[in-house]
Structure formats: C-alpha cells, structure tokens
Design a protein that fits this description.
Number of strands: 10
Largest sheet: 6 strands, mixed
Structural class: alpha+beta
Number of domains: 2
Length: about 325
C-alpha cells in the first residue's frame, strides 16, 4: 500500500494552474489568503493550497504576515503554502504588496482550471507559474497537518526539465483550448504536487517528527501501510505491534513520537476520513459505511464520526448529497 497516494485519493486532491507570469525586476506581487478567494477559484474545495513554481530566473517568496523572513527561489524550485496563507513573490527580500482581488475572476464560459498571462515589460527576468490545489481538510487530512506554512523543494535536473515541460504544455493547452485541456491542466498540477512532496520527504532531517517522517521509518511506515491497506480490519495495538516486529510499548511510543497520535487514534481518524467519502455515495446506508470501515455497531460509528467530524453522519451526508438523489432506505439520521 502506497500510503501517500492513498491519502491523496481520500482527501480528493485536485489542482489548477491559474497564472503564468513573465516579469522583470524590480517586481513584487501579493497573493491573498485562499479563504478570501476560494469561492472564486475553487468553490468545490473544502481547503485551498497555493503554489508558485519558478521556471526561470530567481526571486523571493515570503508569508504576507512575515515579509522580512523571505525564502530565495531558484529556477526549478517550487514554493507551496499548505495553509493557504497570503504571500508575496518579489525580486528582492522584504518587499510588500497588497493583493489585487480583481484578477481572481472565475470564467463564465468554461470550468477550471484556466490560465491568465501577465507579461512584464522588457526582457524576461523571471518566469513563474502560480496555481492552487484543492483538498478535504476534514475529518482527517494527515498530510495537511504535517506540512509547514511555507516550504519549497529543489527538483533534480531531470525533474526540473520534466516539470518545466509539463507546465509549458499546460500553457499551450490553455491557449489552444483543445479537447480535454482542462482535465490535463488539473492532472499536471496534481503530479507536480506529488513530486514536490516526495522531494520534501527526502529532505527531512533524520531526527524530524511528523506524519511524513513516519512514512520513512521502517516499523511505523509498515504499520501505516497495514492500516491504510486494511482499514476495516479489527486492528489492536498488540496485533499491529506483532506485525511490525516490536513490543507493544515500544511500538506505541515510537508511533506516537512520529505521528503525534497513538496507533488507535490514527486508525480511528483515518476510518472517519474514509467514512466521510463513502457517506457521499447515495446507494450506501450508514450501516454499510460503518461496516466497511470496521464498525460492527452503527451506534458506535455514529458516536465516533460525530466526535471527529463535528456532526452526525446523517447530517454530514445531507449537506453533501443533492436532494434529488435517492438515498439507501436504511440510512440513519443520527
């Protein structure tokens, strides 16, 4: 089981490339917090992440609330703001700019993704592509919780060429408006995100903690693969420890050290994320959803789901399934 891929599927990662920028120094541009523009750019997404991919030149990236703490980007590097923070891209560190909210306009004649071109005057000094990733944040997105507010990754020479070509193709597809171009743009952005996360994992210090670091650990990584591969299995602390070859106490301490949750807490929260997706299938009853994620008692499932999702499963699905869709007959409303 590829745990990272499993999580990305369950949290429904999707991407879009919005801006293709060619600028000449001096320049500075501010991007608002994604909460401000989410309804305009990715209204279907529960949480919106912003990224800037630098294809040529060099520049600086910073959080808008801390512009003096800038990160230098070189060609082939990508800056990602997982929490959706407002940010600044500039030709020199410490520069500030107010976002122009007028440029975040959803087209009326087609769906996302799309690209705007902003051509700077004079010769090209810097070329960067900006866009967004949409995903679910609730009930549980372990990847989102493990990322810093701003991080950037240096791609290998081969990856830089590959990524640059993909983004150029995306721009061409947007201009041509060819059949399937919107889907292609979305997939290109998603592939880019995965590549960046993979690179980020390799750069983590050996003594780092967090969900991504847990994936690298031989024992905890194996336990997570078991949980994700068989989430409906009646796992216990003892059975997981046995499977990975550790004592019960050592396994529990090691898992919590990396993940920040006990093995059973992680299992429960992951089951709730899977259940949330299954609750959106009209043909499945809540009892069926509960059974699929390892609950013999629907009542126990209802209590657990409400605890982690903040609302009962019946109310959760009512808010996500159109009223004209028939639901399974034995759906619980609790």
């Amino acid at each position: 089981m590829d745990v990272l891929s499993d999580v990305l599927r369950a949290v429904r990662l999707n991407g879009a490339i919005f801006f293709d920028n060619y600028v000449q120094a001096p320049f500075v541009g501010g991007s608002p917090h994604t909460k401000t523009i989410a309804g305009r750019v990715m209204p279907e997404a529960e949480h919106v992440i912003q990224f800037h991919a630098l294809l040529a030149g060099s520049c600086w990236a910073a959080l808008m609330d801390d512009p003096t703490n800038s990160t230098r980007l070189e060609a082939g590097e990508i800056a990602i703001f997982p929490m959706g923070d407002g940010n600044v891209m500039s030709s020199a560190p410490g520069m500030q700019a107010e976002p122009n909210l007028e440029i975040y306009v959803r087209p009326t004649d087609r769906r996302l993704p799309f690209i705007f071109h902003h051509q700077g005057a004079g010769a090209e000094d810097c070329h960067f592509v900006c866009g967004y990733f949409g995903c679910d944040a609730r009930p549980f997105n372990p990847l989102l919780e493990s990322l810093p507010r701003l991080f950037h990754a240096q791609m290998s020479a081969a990856s830089q060429s590959w990524l640059g070509n993909l983004l150029h193709v995306a721009a061409e597809e947007s201009e041509l408006g060819g059949a399937g171009s919107e889907t292609m743009l979305a997939k290109l952005a998603e592939v880019m995100f995965i590549e960046v996360i993979r690179k980020h994992i390799t750069r983590l210090p050996e003594d780092s903690r967090g969900w991504l670091s847990a994936l690298r650990d031989r024992h905890i990584g194996q336990a997570m693969r078991l949980i994700h591969g068989q989430p409906g299995q009646q796992w216990t602390l003892e059975s997981l420890a046995h499977e990975v070859g550790l004592s019960r106490s050592v396994f529990a301490d090691r898992f919590t050290h990396y993940v920040g949750l006990s093995p059973m807490q992680y299992l429960t929260r992951w089951r709730m994320q899977l259940a949330a997706r299954r609750l959106e299938i009209p043909s499945m009853s809540i009892a069926q959803v509960a059974a699929e994620v390892g609950y013999e008692s629907e009542a126990a499932f209802n209590r657990s789901f409400k605890k982690y999702a903040g609302t009962p499963p019946g109310a959760w699905r009512k808010g996500r399934i159109p009223e004209d869709k028939p639901l399974a007959e034995n759906v619980s409303t609790s």
